[in-house]
Amino acid sequence: MFFAPVFTFARGWNGNAHVYYLNEGNPWEGTRKGSASHILDVVYLFQNFREFLTADQQEVGIAFAEDIFKFCHGVSPWPAVTMGDFDKGFSARFYGSGDERVPKRVVTQPYGDETMRRDVLHSLAARVSLEDLAKVFMAFKTAE
């Protein structure tokens, strides 16, 4: 739901687009514990819940915040997707300690093992619009 629009915007952008993956698990108890979730990037950016994060997660948070502040000050912290070109020279920043204990690195493919992302929605978008898929998702969520 949150990932597909990023690629749609990056593909249609006429300038440079900086794409990133934040693959850290939510540290709080609940149904999303251990899963990467939307809004956790705000925790990493503002560093205001550090006491709830592991040392590895804190390191990822520092790397993430430094890159976002660089970006806000006109510094390109990693190579951008240029003119929506995903076929040649795709790159994105990947944040996550994972098994490699590396807080950040550059990935060169939009989907697959390195990114921990699947292309299911974009494969479906060849037959059904992303707008229609979003409507189905919203209908599913409201049925809970």
Write up what this structure looks like.
By secondary structure, the protein is an alpha+beta fold. It has one domain. 37% of the residues lie in helices and 10% in strands. It has helices at residues 3-12, 40-46, 55-72, 120-124, 130-142; strands at 16-17, 20-22, 81-82, 92-95, 104-107. The chain has a three-stranded mixed beta sheet with strand order 2-4-5, with helices on one face. It has a two-stranded antiparallel ribbon with strand order 1-3. Helix 2 packs across helix 3 (55-72). The chain is globular, with a radius of gyration of 16 Å.
Question: What descriptive keywords fit this protein?
Answer:
three-stranded mixed β-sheet, globular, 144 residues, alpha+beta, two-stranded antiparallel ribbon
How would you briefly describe this protein structure?
By secondary structure, the protein is an alpha+beta fold. It has helices spanning 3-12, 40-46, 55-72, 120-124, 130-142, and strands spanning 16-17, 20-22, 81-82, 92-95, 104-107.
The H-and-E topology, N to C, reads as: HEEHHEEEHH
Distance between the termini: 17 Å
Largest sheet geometry: 3 strands, mixed
Q: Report Rg.
A: 16 Å
Overall outline: globular
> How many independent structural domains?
1
Record field, number of beta strands:
5
Strand residue content: 5-15%
- Mean pLDDT across residues: 83
| Global structural class | alpha+beta
Number of helices: 5
Strand order of the largest sheet: 2-4-5
The percent range for helix content is 25-40%
Q: Quaternary arrangement of the chains shown?
A: single chain
Poorly predicted tracts of residues: none
